[in-house]
Specification:
single chain; 179 residues; alpha+beta; five-stranded antiparallel beta sheet; 15% helix
């Protein structure tokens, strides 16, 4: 019984560590500079079209959407949309969020070793007063799966910044894209 409890404790500790996937800053990785409109990115035997679009609003809040399509191999074949993890099931695009006071969520893309990744940096949510102060930023990384049948970005890992930032976008060059 003593060995069973010890083995159970070890398994629980390992499982807990695995579920809290944490990344370290990725050295010598620069984000892909996206054009307004679309940017084509080659990964494996696929060409992805990342479409960046801006959505404004009259209340000083706005956001950019980043929708990713897999271009067909030949003319006439269907375009495939690469999905992202959503709060409930699938999401269809990544979004940045901006208020009059702060950039509270920012999106970037990068390639490493032929793989395409999307990165989401987000401040802790709160009321308008919260956006005035610097805060830690949670960074999530999504890896594109290069699957022609079900193209999608999968959760790759997460980290929290050591420093505090007014704009979530500043956390990426500050702690993630470390040169």
């Amino acid at each position: 019984m003593r060995y069973t409890m010890w083995a159970t404790a070890i398994v629980m500790a390992v499982a807990g560590a695995a579920s809290a996937a944490t990344l370290n800053p990725v050295p010598a990785v620069a984000q892909i500079k996206l054009a307004e409109g679309y940017t084509d990115v080659k990964t494996g035997d696929m060409t992805l079209r990342i479409i960046k679009a801006h959505v404004g609003s009259p209340d000083a809040s706005a956001f950019d959407t980043f929708t990713v399509y897999v271009l067909p191999r030949k003319a006439g074949d269907p375009w495939l949309q690469a999905t992202v993890p959503g709060q409930k099931g699938l999401g269809y695009n990544l979004r940045s969020y901006e208020t009059a006071d702060a950039n509270i969520q920012s999106i970037a893309f990068y390639q490493q070793g032929g793989q395409l990744y999307a990165v989401q940096a987000a401040r802790a949510s709160g009321g308008a007063d919260t956006n005035m102060a610097k805060a830690r930023v949670d960074i999530k990384v999504f890896k594109f799966n290069r699957d022609w049948d079900v193209p999608k970005f999968d959760n790759e890992g997460a980290m929290s910044t050591k420093g505090s930032y007014h704009d979530a976008a500043d956390a990426l060059p500050g702690e993630f894209f470390v040169h």
